[in-house]
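Notes, p. 3: input format for complexes.
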Amino acid sequence: MTPKPGLFLARVDTLPNPGAIVVDFAEGESRLSIVVTRRGDVIAAFRNRCPHAGYPMERPDGRVVIQEGRFLVCTAHGASFALESGDCAGGPCNGEALERFAIELRDESVFIA
Ligand code: FES
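Output follows (113 residues plus FE2/S2 (inorganic) cluster):
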């Protein structure tokens, strides 16, 4: 499922800084899970699917693991991704990246562009 332009993801003031949240959508049989990250003024959105083996980023309890205030860590096998770019910074996905979605900021909120 591809997110539609204008899809609301989060209010900026609900994003941990630095940190990330997972936002899930369902439409009929289709599912879409997006990770919204923030580090300082940089906010980004990525498909919540690790390029290594396709697992979601968060732990089973829903928590997202952030390392050194800079990296999002896939809890399946420990790959880490830069919060700003989604580029793999270590682990079993070197050279790969999370699929990034363009966003726009409007009214203190984050939307798919
Ligand atoms: S699925 Fe993410 S590190 Fe393996």
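The first strand starts at residue 8 and ends at 11.
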